Amino acid sequence: MAHYDAKEDAGAASEIAALRKVFPAGSSDVVDLGAGTGQFALLAAEQWENVTAVDPSPVMLRVLREKAEAAGSSLHIVEAGYLTYERPSESVDLVYSRYALHHLPDFWKAIALARIRAMLRPGGILRLWDVVYHFPLESAIERIEHWCSTGYADEEGGWTRADLEEHVRDEHSTFTWLLEPMLTEAGFAIEEAGYGDDGIFAKYLLRAV
Prior knowledge:
alpha/beta, seven-stranded mixed beta sheet, 7 strands, globular
């Protein structure tokens, strides 16, 4: 898991700084869906009073609990996922999701997004960051091959070509032109959308309407 953390740098400090402009430190109710080993959630718990880390993996959560205990963190930890985590309607201010929604096929992405919208208060925020393909369909083979070619030769350097090929083969990353209508249909306004220069990644700041 330490090697995973090194490979999967969540950029949590910069994300916290950006989100504090939306929700200043204090009593906001924050949920990290797909929290993994808690890089974001642990820092978020230092800023906001009510932070819940949600993940379906017992292995990830075991590591997260150890980290939270060592840090004396007030973080609340729940074993669940997008389709099973339950919160009362309109009870959450901010939901954070990074590199996790791609585990769901598109039908279940849409259901998950509707469930997130239901738990958010009107005006609440979903911060979504994931592998989302931002290029025309006719460019897909060329763009994916280019991305896979950027993988390291071995795991010590980070994500390998085999890792990236496995993602394309086995995960459910979709196109921006499929995901974005799902977001609006679920009840979100897209306030910010940023795309990687390689057409592989997308970040959204979404407002519950």
